[in-house]
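Morning run. Coffee first, then this:
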Amino acid sequence: LALPDPLLDTPAPQDNAWSRLLQLEAQVQITQASLSHHTSELSTLCQTTKTISDSLQALLERFPAAPAASPSPQMPALHLPATRLAPPAQGHANIPCLVLPDAYNGDCASGECFFQSCVTYIQLCSNNFLSNELKIAWVLSYMKFKQAATYVMKIF
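And here it is:
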């Protein structure tokens, strides 16, 4: 009975290097595919955000100019949880309390609903929003999760 030669069963160093090179090439291809996928998602998010931003800007341009600021204007609550109710704007005492918009995560399916919630709140509480910059900052403050938060972090 002949014993196997250990030298014949051991792969040559160049075989190990070749195998490792093939593994690295496969990993590079996987990484490139992942990068391409994430780049596509980011592009979609940027397009959606741009559309929302353009719609919001167009809507803001249709609103009449805000009245002159008083010495101590009442600022809107920027970081209240969505379950809290906000008081109605001054002069609108007969309007029931308004629900603040839910935080937006960048999901295209919920983007229009988020946008409409923001527009409705801003319109009904217009005395609290004395400039377009304040309106935009307030909307951005509700973009807290996932892709929306990534977008906001790039702006600020």
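The longest strand covers residues 85-86. Good start to the day.
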